[in-house]
């Protein structure tokens, strides 16, 4: 599903729809999940643009997860605000023509709850509610990279309420844990093999069949294999 602004749309996948109540993880340093992806239209094809994202607090409250209600509740006042940081998309600057032909993914954004972080990661307070913002900066000769402040720049900012989340250091909702496993291409071992596509299943079965170490000692032999084993045993005994 795409949510459109003046000249931008954000990809609000079922991942965001399912996780609207939050859960991007802050285990030390972690990539943001779900990922924000945006696309642009109606840009000057010959101009150059930088795309940035920051994450700002939605309110001045701290939250807790009530397991018996499966919902978030206000737990008190927010912790002191943390230094604001901008994430410049690594492919910036784009030409307008190039930017309008692709979807820009912020999959490399990293979050942390380490207030002393010196690696440029976005710092968040756990159990606080946040709103990602996307900034489109029209680059000029005087625009210096990397961009650390939007002051004085030709910038348009976009906010999509669908992407509001509560930052956590451990997932509070089992559905989010399952969602991340289902969405992680490296987590196939956690998923039921019955959910594999026919291509994946055939490929896996082929690998198991051809791999000399793949046979389980508890796997039943076929009749032909059993007879072959008996013949080998008898020939060795002779």
UniProtKB/TrEMBL annotation:
This one is known as: T-box transcription factor TBX20
GO BP, sorted A to Z: cell fate specification; heart development; positive regulation of DNA-templated transcription
Which keywords accompany this UniProt record? DNA-binding, Nucleus, Transcription, Transcription regulation
- One MF annotation (Gene Ontology) recorded for this entry: RNA polymerase II cis-regulatory region sequence-specific DNA binding
Q: Does S-adenosyl-L-methionine appear among the keywords?
A: no
A Pfam cross-reference name: T-box
Domain of life here?
Eukaryota
GO CC, sorted alphabetically, is:
chromatin; nucleus
Source organism per UniProt: Elysia marginata
Q: Known SUPFAM superfamilies for this protein?
A: p53-like transcription factors
Q: Where is the signal peptide?
A: none
